[in-house]
Amino acid sequence: MAPARPPKAKPENPIDAAVAAWLLDLPADLTDTQTKNVDSIVSVVPKRWIVYSPMVLLPAGNPKLKWWEIAESSDATMKAERDRLWRLILNAIGKREGKGVLTHLAVNSGIPLHNPLNVGGDYSESENILRTPDGLVMLYGDFGPSLSPSQAPTSKDFEDAFWVSTKQNGITQIWAPRYTMFSRGNVKEKARILDFPRSSQEFTSRTLSQELLSKNIAVDLYAGIGYFVFSYIKLGLKKVIGWELNPWSIEGLRRGALANGWTVKIVRQSEKLELGHENIIVVAEDNRFALQRLQGLESSFLKGIRHINCGLLPTSDMSWTMASEMIDDGWLHLHENVSVEDVQTRASEIEKMFRGWLSERRDARSADVEHIELVKTFAPGVWHCVFDVHVTAYSKMAKQELQ
Questions:
Q1: Residue 191 CA: distances (Å) to CA of 30, 197, 211, 377
Q2: Position 54 confidence tier, pLDDT thresholds 50, 70, 90
Q3: Which of 131, 306, 174, 330 has its CA nearest to residue 236?
Q4: Under 8 Å CB-to-CB from 149, ≥6 apart: which residues?
Q5: What is the pLDDT at residue 6?
Q6: Mean pLDDT, to the nearest integer, of 1-8?
Q7: Do 93 and 237 belong to one domain?
Q8: Domain stops at, among 77, 106, 135
Q9: What are the tens digits of pLDDT across the range 102-124?
C-alpha cells in the first residue's frame, strides 16, 4: 500500500511574509524599538485584502486598534521604512494575485453619516448626502488632490484623480476611491437584476421576451457610479435614466459606461431633459425634481418605464411616493435596512402605504410586495433588504390569474 501523501503546505499569508521581511531588514538603530514586540505587530496586521487594480484595500479591523500606526514616526528614516513596508505588502499581494503591478495601498472604512468638520476627524451635523468616503486611510500612492466635498471638481481634477476598476457579473465599474464609495456587497443584487425576467417559475408576471425587454425603460433615482444602471442596460432594456448628485460618481459612471461599450449623456441642472440615442442618461441634480422632469417627456416613453430603482441606505423612503407616480405597469425596487425580525412587518407596511397612495389618487391599480430580497447584512441583526413592489392594473392581474 502506497504511503499517504502529506497534506499540501498552506501558502504563507503574503501580508505576514511582508511584515516579517520588513522587520528582518530594519536598520540596526531601529531594530530594537520595532522588533521587541514582533509577535504583537504580526498579530494585529490584517490577513485579508481586496484588489481593485492597481489598488489594494485592507480592512480596518478593530476601530480602536489602528494597526497601520505600527510604523508611525516623525523620524525621517522611519518614514522611509514605513513606505518600504507598504511596498513589500503591495508586492507580496501582487505576486499572490497575479494581477500585475499594484501601486496604491489603503485601509477601508465605513462611509461617515456626516460631513467632516475639520482635518482632525471631527464631524459636523450636516448629512453626508454625497456618501464621500472620508474615512479612507491612504497609506501609499497618490490618490489625487485633497478637495472639499462641497468643491465642484474641474476636468483637471478628474484627470489628476486616481481611478480604479473592477468587474462584477461581466460588467466593468470605475470609481475614484478618494472621492467615491464602492459597495462590493451589491454584486448579488446586480446579478438578480440580470436574471429578473428569467425568474418566471416563481413570478409569471416577470416573463418577458427579449423583444419586449428592448422596449422597456428603467429609472434609477440614486445612480451612483452605475451600480444597477449598468445591470439594466446589460439586461437588454432600451434606456436607463438616472439621477445623481455627486459629480465624482457621475464621472465614474461615465467612464464605466464607455468601458462597457455603452453610450451616455450627462444632463446638467440648467439643461432640458431630451431623449436621444444614448443608452444611459444621467441627470446631475437632486432627484426631487425627477417626476417633473419625466412628465416633460412624451407619454409613450413614460408607459415604457418598467423598473424604478430606489437604492439609498439606510432608507430610500423619501422617494417612494414620487416613484409610485412614475410607474405605469412594473416594479419598484425599494432598498432599506431592516431588523431581521421586522422584515415581514415592514413588507406589509410598504404594501399598505402604496395601496393607500394609489387610493388617494383614485388610481385603479394594485400594489403588491411581490418579493423580498435579503441582499447582505448591514449590522448585527440588520439586513439590507430590497422590496419588489409590483404595480399593475387590476384587469391585467385578473388576466394573469386566468392563464
A1: 51, 12, 21, 17
A2: very high
A3: 306
A4: 115, 116, 128, 130, 132, 134
A5: 56
A6: 57
A7: no
A8: 106
A9: 999 999 875 544 444 444 454 44
Tens digits of residue pLDDT in 290-318: 999 999 888 888 888 999 999 999 999 99
Quote the CA–CA distance of 282 and 273 in Å, as a whole number.
Answer: 10
Instruction: Tell me whether residue 114 is in a domain.
Output: no
What is the chain's mean pLDDT, rounded? 83
Q: Please, what's the b/e burial string for 238-254 (b: 16 or more CB within 10 A of its CB; e: otherwise)?
A: bbbbbbbbbbbbbbbbb
Has residue 70 been placed in a domain?
Answer: yes
Residue 27 domain-assigned (yes or no): yes
In a domain, 134, yes or no: no
Residues 248, 283: Cα–Cα separation, whole Å: 13
Alpha helices, H only, 206-295: 210-213, 229-235, 247-259, 290-295
Evaluate if residue 267 carries a pLDDT over 60.
yes
Report how far residue 152's alpha carbon sits from residue 352's, in angstroms, rounded to the nearest whole number.
41
Q: With contact defined as beta carbons under 8 Å apart, do 368 and 378 qualify?
A: no
Give the cell for residue 241: 435614466
- Same domain? For 102 and 193 the reply is no
Residue 39: domain span: 14-106
Reported confidence tier of residue 275, pLDDT bands at 50, 70, 90: confident
Phi, psi of 15 (to 5 degrees): -70, -45
Choose one of 72, 106, 140: the last residue of a domain: 106
Number of domains present in the structure of the chain? 2
d(CA 68, CA 308): 42
Average pLDDT over residues 35-58: 78
Signed CA dihedral, 369, 318, 301, 292: sign only: positive
Full-model pTM = 0.85
Calpha distance 372→287 (Å, rounded):
25
Beta bridge partners, 393, equal: 365
Measured N-to-C along each axis, helices 76-97 and 28-35 cross at an angle, to the nearest 10 degrees, of 70
Given a cut of 70, whether residue 147 has pLDDT beyond it is yes
> Which tens digit of pLDDT belongs to each residue from 66-107?
777 766 666 677 778 889 989 999 999 999 998 789 999 999
- The 3-state DSSP composition of the chain as helix, strand, coil percent (nearest 5) reads 40, 25, 40
Quote the cell numbers at residue 37.
514586540
What letter represents residue 209's amino acid?
Answer: S
DSSP structural state of residue 238? S
Which of 205, 206, 173 is CA-nearest to residue 190?
173
